[in-house]
Amino acid sequence: MALDAETKRIVSLFELSDDWLNRAVGEYISQAEEGLRSDGTSLSQIPTYVTAVPNGKEKGVYLAVDLGGTNFRVCSVRLNGDTTFNLTYNKVAVPKELMTAKKAEDLFAFLAKQIETFLHEHHKDEFEGVRRRTRSTRKGQKDEDIFHLGFTFSYPVKQLAINKGTLMRWTKGFDIPDAIGKDVCALLQTELDKLHLPVRVAALVNDTVGTLLARSYTSSGHSETLVGAIFGTGTNGAYVEKLSNIKKPIEGEYDASTGKMILNTEWGSFDNQLNILPSTTWDTDLDRESVNPGFHVFEKRVSGMYLGEIVRRSILEMVQNEQLSLFKDVNSSSNDWRSTTSISPQSGLMQLWGLDSSVLSVAASDNTPELSVLRQELEDNLDIYSPSLEDAQAFKAIADAVGRRAARLAAVPIAGVLLQSGQLNDPDSDVIDIGVDGSLVEHYPFFRDMMYEALAAVDGIGPDGAKRIRIGIAKDGSGVGAALIALVAAKMEKERGVGDAVKRELDTVPGNCECFCFPSFSRLCLFPLHPFFFSVVEGRDFPEFNPL
Ligand code: ADP
Ligand code: MG
């Protein structure tokens, strides 16, 4: 009985009332507005210079790479021009030691190597052909030989041009101080050049923006995508904002004719000051022992990297409580597998970050009366032998509570953006489209349903408003989104003759290499995503695009 009572107590610590949700949405809106007025606030609201969305008719083959928090994906994307695409990809886990490497070069050399491997595997003919030609011409690669690459880099970056951005800080467990303040495109291009790869880093993309654009490319009908959101290793969102609402200065030039721009909110940092966010002792301890204490505190309650760790800490505390029977042998009478319940000293339960969030998905989806799937998972994944039904019930209750809290929290920025945009009052937009990506939202059972439930509880949205919101997975969103931006950047270069202009500029910059990461680039092409560029692809004079 003690176990049952303690489980209920802990579960209640993770509950968020509807009243709390409403206050949190108000707080989000106020922090979001602060971020529109000035820099250095908790919500960065970073301008992306993207002022139009694609319409599904774009065509071509592009490379896209995505450095998430867990994996590095390399893919080539063929945009078919009819809202469909074909995608080939390789995925490798980023080695832990590289996440905290001494030099930025170590990480970026690894990334370049993966791109080389991918080209060998999937584009061998083009790749070898280009290499042969490159060797035989002293002038180097011709433009048409080059693969244009969209680099999805999902860490806070101060974007200075379509393919130039300096790293503000690391998140999601990365910590390479050497890279802070450096242009991440230049870091990658330098390593690609060392390998003599025919690849140009054409565009720097945040995964949220990629998700928004990819959703917009693939989604049918006339509804515009308003938000692109990630719930994977970390969480973040980008949305379409009216230029007139952005009060802080936007450096450089951009096309203002659409009157709108996509902003990268960096909502992982929502409420770093903890005005409203719930804090259990496990949240506080996890933050203190993380590589970035005090930062990304919203992310630390919502995303895949952290949910397993919150569960691990709360379960471990229960295991260490002598008064409680959790994973101890006292329940053997109802233990139908073996007679002794035991936890291996090597169990992930005993290790920092030792419980993967995917275990929460197993717990949430097991509705068998004996919780047999979860009990097997506890054995296989966590080396907890012969857990009883009561053990598994307690584990499931806590894991479900942490997952549910995350989904309700995830609804807060979405509700905030929606209310702030006023779209629900717009009689022309019957459906409000939200593109999402990331393993958590894709695989955690009912994550989106719990988000809808929370959205329906928010004043100003309500059940009717929630019905008009369509939260759709943007499958392979970052790959397709990055390809779309690479396409735009490549066409932009060609159509505007930027390549020539850049060459001339280059002559005046001593010691610069032949890559597209130089100081003068921002002056040359800060119209990155003028609506015109999406039309250029189809060779028209003026766009048939979805103005934002
Ligand atoms: P990235 O953030 O690198 O782009 P993903 O979107 O795949 O990668 O997210 C990886 C994160 O999602 C990891 O933190 C992992 O623990 C978590 N995760 C993976 N599978 C699941 C699952 N089935 N349920 C919940 N979380 C998951
Ligand atoms: Mg991702």
UniProtKB/TrEMBL annotation:
Coiled coil: none annotated. One of its GO terms (molecular function) is D-glucose binding. Residues 227-488 form the Hexokinase C-terminal domain. Its EC number is 2.7.1.-. It comes from the Eukaryota. It is an enzyme of class 2 (transferase). Residues 7-217 form the Hexokinase N-terminal domain. GO terms for cellular component: cytosol; mitochondrion. Belongs to the hexokinase family. This is Phosphotransferase. It comes from Sodiomyces alkalinus (strain CBS 110278 / VKM F-3762 / F11). The lineage of its organism: Eukaryota, Fungi, Dikarya, Ascomycota, Pezizomycotina.
